Amino acid sequence: MSEVNGLVTMESPLDAPATIHWLETTLASKGATVFGKVDHAAGAQAVGLPLGPTTVLIYGNAQAGTRLMQIDQRIGIDLPLKLLVWTDADGKTQVSYNDPVWIAARYGITPEAAPVLTAMQGMLKGLAEGLAAAR
Question: Which of 27, 29, 88, 102 gives the lowest tally of CB atoms within 10 Å of its CB?
Fold first, then answer.
């Protein structure tokens, strides 16, 4: 797992479709709602451009997100959260996401002011650990 400027990237042991399925199922089991899926590769193909598997899952939990928006509604531009599932040049599936604490810092919101950030961060770390063990 690596992190640069709040962007966390981890390798998945599964291919892209299986990773997306695993994430959707696991998010739902944790009470998150998957609001949408954007298949960038399909969009690229539709205009005749090559792009490896690249899909964004848009997900969230209204209770957690609302607590942050009650502090600063502008954070709504960064919510719901997103997971990017993509295949790198070596054919390995990667999952990237913005650390919620990093996002909140943009608005001056700290984990002390919004303990929900620590819970969100913990859920994402749990997803990463669970995905690493998936087969």
Answer: 29
The structural architecture, per CATH, of the domain 2-133 is 2-Layer Sandwich (3.30)
What residue type is 42 in one-letter code?
Answer: A
Task: Tell me how far apart the alpha carbons of residues 64 and 86 are, in angstroms, rounded to a whole number.
Answer: 26
Burial of 51 (0-12, 13-18, 19+ CB in 10 A): middle
Give 10-residue mean pLDDT values along the chain (135 residues): 93 97 96 97 98 97 95 97 97 97 96 93 92 89
User: Which strands form 2-4's sheet, in the order they lie side by side?
Assistant: 2-4, 7-12, 93-98, 81-87, 54-60, 33-39
Which pLDDT value is given to residue 1? Answer: 87
